[in-house]
Design a protein that fits this description.
Rossmann fold; 2 domains; six-stranded parallel β-sheet; 10 helices
Length: 377
């Protein structure tokens, strides 16, 4: 490995632990990519901090993230904290001169996103990206390559979705993602939206209008003592947009973000239909991409198994299956590669793309509230 990047982790919960796990799997990568070394961990929860004592390189433990940012050994920060903290914490990370990989939605709202972008303008030497792992599935990457090669022709329609079903359990206790003060007005759109936006935005597909249908289906959920408390955020969102591609052609473009989708655990779906070819991908069938072939005047769907043909080569044989933890490893490899100026065919979600996502979701809120189609900047 050609060196290391010394990281601090702010937010040592689910995704912070996933980052630690990926950093310990770095030998899985065949390329000469600098290894992320987690030297510091910060969380208000002592048990979360203690978990990081298992990580061999972690030697500093903080409950105050300002102390982590003052540590000269920390070069970059992976930050996974509730949405209402993004604006302040991300800004502090950047102004401390630390590179940042922040979790979605990169600010609780449009104002917070712009706050982070202003800090970036003050510190252009700091490299900043937003976490989004699903486009790194090899089958999704195959769709991206076909698109860049012009295989689809003129677009007929495009759809991008992420769907959960855990909230179908009406006894599930409330958490901060169901509370407006911590999650923001976007509800499910803020927490899930980037997973639907990364691929189309990177391919140059952008929504120019939005008409939104939002649903808060469960009005209360039990707290830790079992008492019902208000569940304030949107459970499901369906955004019907007019999309535009790089050639200026327009087409229907749909974004779906659902916490209450029967039968789904964490289902991500991409579909692009074109006059020459169509293709679709779903994490329900993660090792395959479906595409159309012409049979005379008819169209037939074919299934191509992609396997471990990853963006960054790995030791796993190409015939074996690819999964979520593999996509995280690929995403972190992309971040470190871009940070060090190494080749990267498909990079992490950029702050400019995050800003476009906030404009879409802010427009969606206005569309639903005002019952109209909203023009996007």
């Amino acid at each position: 490995m050609s060196g290391t990047v010394k990281f601090g982790v702010i937010g040592c919960g689910l995704m912070g632990r996933e980052f630690a796990s990926a950093s310990m799997r770095w030998l899985h990568l065949l390329g000469d990519i600098p290894r992320p070394v987690i030297v510091a961990a910060c969380d208000l929860n002592e048990a979360n901090r203690r978990w990081f004592s298992q990580v061999p390189d972690t030697k500093y433990f903080y409950s105050d993230y300002h102390e982590l940012l003052a540590n000269p050994e920390v070069e970059a920060v992976y930050c996974a904290v509730p949405h209402h903290l993004h604006g302040q914490v991300y800004t502090d990370v950047i102004r401390a001169g630390k590179h940042l990989l922040g979790e979605k939605p990169f600010g609780m709202d449009l104002a917070a996103c712009r706050q982070v972008l202003e800090a970036m303008e003050e510190h252009p030497e700091v490299f900043v990206r937003c976490a989004s792992e699903f486009p790194f599935y090899p089958a999704a990457q195959q769709m991206a390559r076909w698109f860049r090669e012009g295989a689809f022709g003129r677009i007929i329609e495009a759809r991008f979705a992420i769907k959960h079903s855990s909230d179908m359990d009406l006894t599930k206790p409330i958490n901060w993602k169901r509370q407006r003060a911590a999650n923001g007005e976007y509800g499910c759109m803020g927490d899930l939206g980037i997973h639907t936006q990364h691929l189309p935005f990177r391919l140059g597909l952008r929504p120019v209008t939005v008409s939104a249908q939002l649903a808060n289906l469960v009005k209360t959920r039990p707290d830790a003592q079992g008492n019902p408390v208000p569940c304030e955020t949107w459970d499901n969102a369906l955004l019907l947009c007019e999309g535009e591609d790089g050639a200026g052609d327009r087409f229907p473009m749909t974004f779906e973000m659902k916490r209450m989708a029967p039968g789904c655990t964490n289902s991500v779906e991409y579909e692009i239909d074109g006059l020459k070819m169509s293709a679709r991908f779903s994490t329900d069938d993660p090792n395959a991409v479906y595409y159309t072939q012409a049979v005379g005047r008819e169209q037939a769907w074919a299934r191509l198994v992609v396997g471990q043909k990853t963006l960054f080569p790995v030791i796993t044989g190409g015939i074996f299956e690819f999964g979520f933890s593999d996509s995280l490893l690929q995403m972190f490899a992309a971040y470190v590669s871009e940070l060090r100026g190494l080749p990267c065919e498909f990079g992490c979600f950029t702050p400019d793309e995050a800003l476009r996502g906030h404009q879409l979701l802010t427009g969606a809120l206005a569309s639903y509230t005002e019952r109209r189609v909203v023009e996007l900047a």
